[in-house]
């Protein structure tokens, strides 16, 4: 049921004297009283929700935690009530002061606490509201800031053990303090029990809010705190790349979100910073300061500044800087009034500006590896966050074994064109990194990279063509240089004439190697030595002599090369020495100058490479033997021999064993030195198709050059041990040779071709003569046949035509008469048939039309009856509609009459 109360006021109010006014007021009071009685009667029959509301006053103060407060809960030991005011920075739960008189408190141990002993609840749950007034009711500007608490949560744990409840503003803790039994069923609660909530003030709030209210229902009163809450400015800073994680840390230039609150509305502040700076190699810091964000408007008393890059402190990990190796730099952010830029006001209850801390991770190398002629000189790597591994300090600082840091005090040994892998972490985020080689006046760019969003990078730098010596390798990022030293040694580069790499075939056929020198002493005689041709000897062989240029390099206008000697397959050391040790020498290579490695590849040559089938016949002046010479094989290794992919008939037995133990060397790979091992018994027996290479990797095979058909043939060698170790069986090396037909087959073949060419030269004349004769014969025969054909056609056709005409003439009269009679009969019969069929069709159509008319007539009667029924139903519907319209009209009229009567009565009473 709806009740509408209409109050009509005229445009002009009549003039009334005292009595009239009194009568008017009396009548109006009577009307109002009647209206209230009517409303009361109505409310007596309409059910309403019961009134909820908390009453009393919560008490503000602080409690001291006796342990760590986290998401699992908090333990507190006592509660101290504030006399008059409690001061808390926005975004924090630490109490900085209470009064009166003003007493400074330690915000790290004094946690804002609300005592609910004086609050009577009428609901089963509640939450907290910040208000700008202390009235016991809610206002539009009030702000709900806590999660919803259950009343029963006060007594959920033993005294002092508080449960954690979290929302967007932080973590709150609820529980009780005291002795005895916790019970919230009756008010006032036991005097020995103090129900409390510990929690922060939100960051996005202005200093105008001064009261905490308790709200436990949709209507009714609210319990407002008796003490005044003083909210001072506060700051919060988080990493903008992971805003959901409350982490205020990261590398330089990390984008951060800065939130500030507790300010007056429409103010302007700057966000300043300070941090300790360690210069190299001082271990005493100086204070650096500056402005991170200027001219920030406080809005309604709070603000949010998104994606502001944190300051780059320009520091790298410095083990000299502090006892903890200075892995991080603490940056303190604080807000100041824009009119006093650079000044941090004293932290007092009335003028203090709270601060926020950002921990910046300092730059560090996580990997420094330099290739030294195929091998790493430094192979360790690590991570700053893992104490079990090491990471590198730059700027020539020392190692710290306590933190497992790697030693970069000694230069990293490297060579010209050698790659150096450099990886770093905590460099400024998403920014360029450049690499420079620098020594005295020399400054050469060596590469570049870009850091990721977390400040890490991994790059490979190639040492350019520079002189020998020690250089600083500078890693520049955001105008910060972090360095380590590299020692560039003299460099020798080998280039095979076949493969154009530092590996190539052995000497048969001859293989030449070009030599290039870099970083050598200027204008100095240099000798090139090759080490070892036999696995049993370490002799050095002089191969080449040259003189370096004034820049310590080989002359670019001249190519220096030597021939690869007959040596076993695998790696051999090549040295460039500034001292001549003679044609050969043994012992250590010349010190302090360049060496390089060259890989010898196997070769196989068949001599003679081509022969005919008489090569091995009895009485031939040649020996009839064919030699297959292999070089560059693995030394002292058995190879299976195959000729035309068939195992050759070799019978060789090899044995390497000893009851007392022997040293057994496995085959040499091209780029991996394998050590020899001692085995108690090692026996290797080959019964056929095998041959052993010598200590110098040479294998000389001889077979008879007979029994081959003309064509291409093949000799191949396969190291069974090597194939087995690789899991594949394919030839290590093969060579082709050719067998030609018997005698001087080239001359005989050319003579045959010449004779054939002579015969072909006379062929056109012979063919022309034979063609002319054939044409003449064809012409004679054709004329005779045409004449005979004409005679036959003339006689045959004439006789046939004459006979046909005579036959037609003899039958014309009789046939015409018969034809006319037949045509007349056929026409009459056809007409008769057409007439008969037409009459029948007409009859059929007439019958069908009659049947259709009958059916239509039959359905018409039924449809008429249906139409009559529909008409009757329509009439009923119309009657019903008319009736409903009548009812509606009556109701409307009655409603209008009632409304008029009500208005008349009201007007009468008011008049």
Task: List its salient traits.
6-stranded antiparallel beta barrel, 911 residues, 6-stranded mixed β-sheet, alpha+beta
Folded structure, characterized:
The protein has three helices and 54 strands. It is an alpha+beta fold. The strands form 13 sheets. Strands 2-3-12-13-14-7 form a six-stranded antiparallel barrel. The two termini are 29 Å apart.
Q: Percent of residues in helical segments?
A: 10-25%
Structural class: alpha+beta
Number of strands: 54
Between the first and last Cα atoms, what is the distance in angstroms? 29 Å
Give the strand order, joined by hyphens, for the main sheet.
2-3-12-13-14-7
- State the low-pLDDT regions, or none: 1-52, 341-352, 374-391, 396-405, 651-687, 852-893
Mean pLDDT rating: 74
Helical segment tally? 3
How would a crystallographer describe the biggest sheet?
Answer: 6 strands, antiparallel, barrel
Portion in strands: 25-35%
Radius of gyration: 57 Å
Global shape: elongated
Brief summary of the model shown:
The protein is an alpha+beta fold. Helices cover 22% and strands 34% of the residues. The strands form 13 sheets. The protein has a 6-stranded antiparallel beta barrel. A 6-stranded mixed beta sheet has the order 36-43-41-38-39-42, with no helix packed on it.
Helix-strand layout with pairing:
Blueprint: H1 18-45, E1 55-56, E2 59-65, E3 74-81, E4 85-89, E5 97-99, E6 103-104, E7 111-115, E8 119-120, E9 125-131, E10 143-144, E11 149-150, E12 161-167, E13 170-178, E14 193-198, E15 211-215, E16 223-224, E17 228-232, E18 234-239, E19 249-250, E20 255-261, E21 268-277, E22 286-297, E23 303-309, E24 328-337, E25 355-361, E26 364-372, E27 375-376, E28 412-415, E29 419-425, E30 432-439, E31 442-450, E32 457-462, E33 469-477, E34 480-489, E35 491-496, E36 503-505, E37 512-518, E38 525-531, E39 540-547, E40 560-563, E41 570-577, E42 584-585, E43 595-601, E44 603-607, E45 610-612, E46 625-631, E47 638-643, E48 646-647, E49 662-664, E50 677-679, E51 690-692, E52 699-704, E53 711-719, H2 720-726, E54 733-740, H3 745-910
Parallel strand pairs: 4-17, 19-25, 28-34, 36-43, 45-54
Antiparallel strand pairs: 1-8, 2-3, 2-7, 3-12, 4-5, 5-6, 7-14, 9-10, 9-11, 9-15, 12-13, 13-14, 15-16, 18-20, 20-23, 21-22, 21-24, 24-25, 26-27, 26-29, 29-32, 30-31, 30-33, 33-34, 35-37, 37-40, 38-39, 38-41, 39-42, 41-43, 44-46, 46-52, 47-48, 47-51, 47-53, 49-50, 53-54
């Amino acid at each position: 049921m709806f009740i509408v109360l209409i109050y009509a006021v005229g445009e002009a109010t009549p003039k009334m004297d005292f009595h009239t006014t009194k009568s008017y007021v009396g009548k109006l009071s009577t009307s109002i009283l009647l209206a209230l009685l009517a409303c009361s009667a109505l409310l007596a029959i309409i059910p309403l929700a019961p009134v909820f509301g908390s009453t009393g006053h919560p008490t503000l103060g602080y409690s001291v935690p006796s342990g760590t407060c986290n998401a699992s809960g908090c333990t507190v030991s006592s509660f101290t009530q504030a006399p008059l005011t409690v001061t808390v920075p926005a975004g924090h739960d630490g109490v900085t002061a209470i009064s009166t008189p003003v007493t400074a408190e330690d915000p790290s141990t004094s946690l804002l606490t609300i005592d609910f002993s004086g609050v009577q609840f009428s609901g089963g749950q509640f939450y907290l509201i910040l208000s700008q007034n202390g009235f016991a009711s809610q206002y539009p500007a009030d702000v709900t800031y806590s999660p919803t608490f259950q009343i029963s949560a006060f007594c959920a744990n033993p005294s002092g053990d508080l449960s954690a409840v979290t929302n967007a503003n932080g973590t709150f803790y609820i529980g009780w303090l005291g002795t005895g039994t916790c019970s919230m069923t009756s008010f006032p609660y036991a005097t020995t029990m103090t129900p409390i909530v510990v929690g922060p003030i939100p960051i996005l709030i202005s200093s105008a809010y001064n009261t905490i209210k308790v709200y436990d229902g949709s209507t009714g009163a609210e319990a407002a705190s008796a003490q005044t809450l003083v909210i001072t400015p506060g700051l919060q800073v988080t990493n903008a790349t992971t805003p959901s994680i409350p982490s205020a840390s990261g590398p330089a230039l990390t984008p951060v979100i800065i939130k500030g609150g507790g300010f007056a509305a429409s103010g302007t502040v700057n966000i300043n910073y300070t941090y300790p700076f360690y210069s190299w190699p001082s271990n005493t810091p100086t204070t650096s300061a500056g402005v991170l964000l200027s001219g920030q408007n406080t809005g309604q008393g709070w603000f949010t500044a998104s994606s502001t890059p944190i300051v780059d402190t320009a520091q790298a990990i410095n083990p000299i800087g502090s006892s903890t190796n200075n892995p991080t730099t603490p940056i303190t952010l604080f807000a100041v009034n824009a009119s006093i830029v650079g000044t941090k006001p004293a932290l007092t209850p009335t003028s203090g500006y709270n601060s926020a801390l950002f921990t910046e991770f300092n730059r560090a190398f996580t990997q420094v590896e330099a290739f030294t002629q195929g091998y790493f000189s430094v192979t360790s790597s690590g991570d700053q966050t893992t104490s079990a591994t090491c990471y590198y300090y730059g700027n020539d600082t020392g190692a710290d074994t306590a933190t497992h840091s790697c030693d970069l005090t000694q230069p990293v040994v490297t060579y010209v064109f050698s790659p150096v892998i450099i990886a770093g972490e905590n460099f400024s985020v998403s920014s360029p990194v450049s690499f420079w080689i620098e020594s005295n006046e020399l400054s050469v760019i060596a590469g570049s990279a870009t850091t990721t969003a977390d400040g890490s990078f991994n790059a490979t730098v190639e040492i350019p063509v520079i002189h020998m010596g020690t250089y600083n390798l500078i890693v520049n990022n955001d105008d910060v240089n972090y360095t380590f030293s590299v020692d560039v040694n003299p460099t020798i580069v080998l280039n095979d004439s076949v493969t154009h790499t530092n590996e190539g075939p052995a000497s048969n056929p001859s293989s030449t190697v070009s030599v290039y020198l870099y970083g050598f002493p200027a204008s100095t005689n240099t000798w090139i030595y090759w080490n070892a041709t036999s696995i049993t000897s370490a002799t050095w062989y002089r191969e080449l002599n040259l003189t370096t240029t004034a820049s310590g390099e080989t002359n670019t206008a001249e190519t220096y090369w030597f021939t690869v000697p007959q040596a076993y397959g695998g790696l051999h050391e090549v040295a460039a020495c500034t001292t001549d040790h003679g044609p050969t020498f043994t012992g250590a290579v010349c010190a302090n100058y360049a060496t390089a490695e060259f890989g010898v590849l196997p070769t196989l040559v068949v001599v003679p490479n081509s022969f005919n089938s008489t090569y091995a016949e009895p009485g031939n002046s040649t020996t009839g033997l064919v030699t297959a010479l292999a070089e560059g094989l693995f030394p002292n290794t058995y190879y299976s021999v195959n000729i035309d992919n068939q195992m050759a008939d070799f019978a060789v037995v090899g044995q390497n064993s000893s009851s007392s133990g022997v040293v057994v060397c496995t085959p040499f790979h091209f780029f991996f030195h394998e050590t020899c091992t001692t085995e108690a018994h090692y026996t290797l027996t080959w019964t056929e198709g095998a041959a052993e290479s010598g200590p110098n990797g040479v294998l000389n095979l001889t077979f008879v050059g007979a029994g081959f058909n003309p064509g291409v043939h093949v000799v191949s060698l396969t190291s069974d041990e090597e194939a087995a170790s690789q899991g594949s069986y394919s030839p290590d090396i093969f060579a082709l040779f050719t067998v030609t037909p018997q005698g001087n087959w080239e001359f005989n073949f050319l003579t045959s071709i010449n004779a054939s060419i002579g015969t072909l030269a006379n062929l056109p004349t012979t063919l022309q003569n034979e063609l002319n004769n054939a044409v003449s014969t064809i012409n004679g025969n054709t004329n005779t046949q045409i004449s005979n054909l004409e005679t036959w056609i003339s006689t045959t056709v004439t006789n046939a035509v004459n006979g046909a005409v005579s036959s037609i003439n003899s039958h014309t009269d009789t046939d015409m008469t018969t034809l006319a009679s037949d045509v007349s009969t056929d026409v009459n019969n056809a007409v008769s048939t057409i007439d008969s069929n037409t009459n029948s069709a007409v009859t059929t159509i007439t019958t069908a039309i009659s049947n259709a008319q009958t059916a239509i007539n039959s359905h018409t009667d039924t449809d008429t009856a249906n139409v009559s029924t529909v008409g009757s139903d329509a009439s009923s519907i119309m009657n019903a509609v008319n009736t409903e319209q009548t009812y509606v009209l009556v109701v409307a009229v009655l409603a209008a009459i009632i409304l008029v009567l009500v208005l008349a009565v009201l007007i009468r009473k008011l008049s």
